[in-house]
Structure formats: structure tokens, C-alpha cells
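Table S2 (text version). Query chain:
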Amino acid sequence: MCLAIPGKLLEISSENGLKMGTIDVNGARTRACLEYVPEIQVGNYTIVHAGFALKIIDEDEAAESLKLWAELVEKGAFDPLDELPSSGAV
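Corresponding C-alpha cell output:
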């Protein structure tokens, strides 16, 4: 399953000829390649997956998505204490 998280672009830079950015994802900063969203500007919200900003979204869409993530966490969907299935489980 692939998960893409919304975040706010804080800073744009260049690394090895690629447009890169620092993204605030719910208080945590991460780096992402911005080549798929060349028109993005500081302050825009984006969906980030596997180190790539995939789409620019508006602030309302970002807020709704983060609200849903918070509800999932609150309900234990991502409980780090849950046991992972063994390699023999199907």
C-alpha cells in the first residue's frame, strides 16, 4: 500500500541540478524532489510520497487529509506496539 502525506513547502533549493524542497509534514521536516511540480512555490501544500512531491493541493485539502490521518492514528491504525505478521503468515 502506498501512502502520500500532505505537507507545506518551506524552502526551495537545487541539488545536483534537481529542484528540491524542505517540506513540513505535520511538524516534521523532510526533503523532497520538486521536479514533478515545477510551478510549486514556498507556502504551497503538496502531497509527498517516497521523497517526491507529486501534486500541489490547496490548504483546505491538506487540512482535511491531515485531520483524517489524525483520526486514523487516534483509533490505533498505526499502533507501533502491534505485532507484525510472521513471514509464514498469509
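Notes on Table S2: DSSP finds one helix and five strands in the chain. Residues 14 and 20 are 5 Å apart (CA to CA).
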